[in-house]
Amino acid sequence: MYHNREFLRFSKKNPYEVTNGDIRNYLYHLANAKSTSTLNIAINALKFYYVLKRRFVYEIKRPKEDKKLPVVLSQEEVFQILSSVNNIKHKAILMLIWLTIS
Hints:
The protein is mainly alpha-helical and 102 residues long. 9% of the residues are buried. The longest helix has 19 residues, at 36-54. The chain has helices spanning 2-11, 20-33, 36-54, 75-84, 88-101.
């Protein structure tokens, strides 16, 4: 219901006046402002009402999930972490972990 309500606010039309172009414009707006999971939820909500009830908008393609790269520490950051540890046992454990993953 949320995305249908937001779509109608965005298009400033009632449900019977909505066109394919209005739905495309709303989805482009969401694609620029929101995550892919939010966009997929909006597509599902709009398809439920407008595709099942009005039989159009079949050509909507779902976006692929964002691929995020992991955060990698620089050698200087690792050195700062290792030098901040005072306990020799903890420092040895951290150094072993660093050696096994690098």
